Amino acid sequence: MLLSDPQIILAVLFAFLGLIFLIITVVGIKKRKLFAPATSFVTALLMLSLSALFGTISIAIQGYHALTREELAATVKVEPTGEQKFNARFLMPDGSVEIFSLAGDQLYVDAHILKWKPLANIFGLHTSYELDRVAGRYASLNDETTKVHTVYSLSRDKPLNMFNLRQRFAMLNPLLDAEYGSATFINSNSAEEFRVMVSTTGLLIRKADKEPGR
Description:
This protein is of the alpha+beta class. It has 5 helices and 10 strands. Strands 1, 5, 6, 7 and 8 form a 5-stranded antiparallel sheet that branches. Strands 4-3-2-9-10 form a 5-stranded antiparallel sheet, with no helix packed on it.
């Protein structure tokens, strides 16, 4: 639910406080006081700014998943369909399924990872990730530069993306410790099932019959 999002709760709280201080400002002006209305107005602007900040963060991290340990990002079934061609069937943790027709010798997957600073942890923001793209990758550099490329998006469309906002606005530096991309790939020349795992250090792929951590 939307109201279970800590950032939305904080956005609503600061908006409510901002409204209260705006009312105090209006009352002070009507009573012809000078210092009190000015202080209340500045406080109201601060509260509303914080409300806008947390509201923006909430929207920008939609689609990202909290990450506290090594986690399963997707289960992928690879099936060759021809020379340097294969299908990749992605089963996501939420049960959704996507199938991609790819060209190349290897399955390539990358992701965006956001690592928040302790200050942001206080407000319920922790390391999070979002799978970004899947593509076919050629083992030969010559094939990579001359043959057809296939790439598809794994991320959700959103009006704002925190990964992009962090790169554009320095004001987010106190909250975000790092934002980085991580990628992994594996051979696709035989029918196999793989687990795409993600940890705070990045992505990795394991065969499905191999236990995590081994």
